[in-house]
Amino acid sequence: MRRVVITGIGAVTPLGNTAQETMTNLREGKNGIAPISRFDANETGITVAGEVKDFDPTLYMAKKDVKRMDMYSVYAIAAAEQALQDCGLIIDESNADRVGSMVSSGIGGMETIQNQVIRMSKKGPKRIAPLFVPMVIGNMAAANVAIKIGAKGNCSSIVTACASSTNAIGEAFRDIKHGYADVVFAGGAEATICEIGIGGFAALTALSEETDPTIASRPFDKDRDGFVMGEGSAILVLEELEHAKARAAKIYAEVAGYGSNCDAHHITSPNADGSGAGKCMLLAIDEAGIAKEEISYINAHGTSTPTNDGAETTAIKYAFGDYAYKIPVSSTKSMVGHLLGAAGAVEALACITALENDVIPPTIGLENPDETCDLDYVPGQPRQTEVNYTLSNSLGFGGHNAVLCLKKWRGN
């Protein structure tokens, strides 16, 4: 089978408006969570989030185009443009049909939905914006990216809640591996820090009510009380190895394996026995063709919710047995919050920087470990250690599990 490598990266996240800035801050354990500034969130009972900061969309598109899109699409285009520039690929009629766009969103244009429902309520249904539908539907980040860069291959958006962008990267990997594409721009985008987004997840009792941004997202901590909403986008350029070598492209890492399955258990809670996510990790390891003991680091889904963190800990033990206690595991959601459908793509960046620099990003805010969460969660500070293979776990509402296995690039 054809090998698949990562040759370009782009991102807009709570930790930076480029992929490199984001990865540096992840590696250093910086906190991108802060008080919500976009609207008065007091009535929701939630006061902090991982907002994108000082972002200028006109660096990537004209003002009129920004107005014609929801912010989740704007974030995706910015990340994709960065990734295109980073990878150095020229897309033209000679290769456009072999370049794909797989960019997922768990929710799509939530803020546009909110604003237009308010407008309809005040002014009537005939005053709904003409572009309402193409602004909100979940495939439009993928479509807008494809239009912007000229990618005419497979263009799709996989919606599996918080596993969406990991599934997008995994399916892009399979498309290239099996010969359906040479290059795919893959990742996710989300923009849900608005009244209905925060209020909706608060009504579900899923969000942290902590007011201190330094400890609001504290995965695996005994005092955790919910996740912190994040926003943004991350896009990876996946490319067939020989295609990348032929144009002397920079290679960040290799995609070695991918797993995807379902708990078939509950609409919001993972299976407490860990079997679904555990089997999914084993699927990714099996496709990579490696032993379990070769995994150097696991980027956990690690949402900081009471239910998820214990179940994921059990899942890691299900997959690795006693070796689970020897694997460093961290949750970078402690730094950026939970980007929902875009979370897995950002966490793939965390794995890339771990592989490139032999530094494991920490779980910040973890001060009082839960007795049921008894693995090595790299609390507080980054850790220097050799990293050769990583797993990135994404677990979505509905029981969706997706896992990527990335491999250090050594030039062969």
From TrEMBL:
Residues 1-408 form the Ketosynthase family 3 (KS3) domain. GO terms for biological process: fatty acid biosynthetic process. Its EC number is 2.3.1.179. GO terms for cellular component: cytosol. One of its GO terms (molecular function) is 3-oxoacyl-[acyl-carrier-protein] synthase activity. The active site is at C162 (for beta-ketoacyl synthase activity). Pathway: Lipid metabolism; fatty acid biosynthesis. PROSITE patterns: KS3_1, KS3_2. It holds the Pfam family ketoacyl-synt. Keywords: Acyltransferase, Fatty acid biosynthesis, Fatty acid metabolism, Lipid biosynthesis, Lipid metabolism, Transferase. It catalyses: (9Z)-hexadecenoyl-[ACP] + malonyl-[ACP] + H(+) = 3-oxo-(11Z)-octadecenoyl-[ACP] + holo-[ACP] + CO2; a fatty acyl-[ACP] + malonyl-[ACP] + H(+) = a 3-oxoacyl-[ACP] + holo-[ACP] + CO2. Involved in the type II fatty acid elongation cycle. Catalyzes the elongation of a wide range of acyl-ACP by the addition of two carbons from malonyl-ACP to an acyl acceptor. Can efficiently catalyze the conversion of palmitoleoyl-ACP (cis-hexadec-9-enoyl-ACP) to cis-vaccenoyl-ACP (cis-octadec-11-enoyl-ACP), an essential step in the thermal regulation of fatty acid composition. Belongs to the thiolase-like superfamily. Beta-ketoacyl-ACP synthases family. This is 3-oxoacyl-[acyl-carrier-protein] synthase 2. It comes from Vagococcus silagei. The lineage of its organism: Bacteria, Bacillati, Bacillota, Bacilli, Lactobacillales.
